[in-house]
Amino acid sequence: MKIPSRHLCLTFWLALLCLPVSFLYSQNQPSLSQLDWLVGSWLRDNAKSTTIESWQRLSEHTFEGISVRIAKATQDTVFSESLLLAEMGSDIYYLAKVPENAFPIPFKLTSFTKDSVVFENASHDFPQKISYVHKAINEMTVTISGDDNGMTRTISFPFKKIVEDKQQ
Predict the structure, then answer these.
(1) Cα gap 167→132, rounded to integer Å
(2) How many C-beta atoms lie closer than 10 Å to residue 33's C-beta?
(3) Which of 18, 34, 63, 72 would suit a FRET pair with 55, their CA atoms being 20 to 30 Å apart?
(4) Within 10 Å of residue 46's Cβ, how many Cβ atoms?
(5) How far is CA 89 from each of CA 43, 123, 132, rounded to the nearest angstrom?
(6) Are 31 and 87 in contact (CB under 8 A)?
(7) Could you read off the pLDDT of 69-94 as tens digits, one per residue?
(8) How far apart are the C-alpha atoms of 107 and 92, rounded to whole Å?
(9) Which domains does the chain carry?
(10) What's residue 2's pLDDT?
């Protein structure tokens, strides 16, 4: 059976019209590979404490992180948390394990651009939202926000990337 050329032409144009839509859709699907800017160690320093947050890529679908805050006066660790970014099916989760909770707290990715990510967990006490914004090549801001005992709170933590000296 011979297919009329007008059907082939119509099929070609329909396929061509669908191509940009599928291309745009694939570009908007979040992937941990788009968060490579997060990998490395980040420093936050103020008068009372020093915080270091470090991230490494474990696999194509997993990043592992740790955040430690050290008091300047005593050099004691006053806060630490283990962090994990994981692709699970079509979703990405931020898992935070802090000493006061028996299990990691999951936050689901709700917003994503090339320079920012937002994770949310409406059922968590505080924060309910965690965002990372890549401000410049060596700067990022981590913001936690949400309801805290009936009061809306937002706390931002500016970080600078620790650049390793390659000459050593």
Answers:
(1) 30
(2) 10
(3) 72
(4) 10
(5) 32, 22, 22
(6) yes
(7) 999 999 999 999 999 999 999 999 99
(8) 9
(9) 32-161 (2.40.128.20)
(10) 52
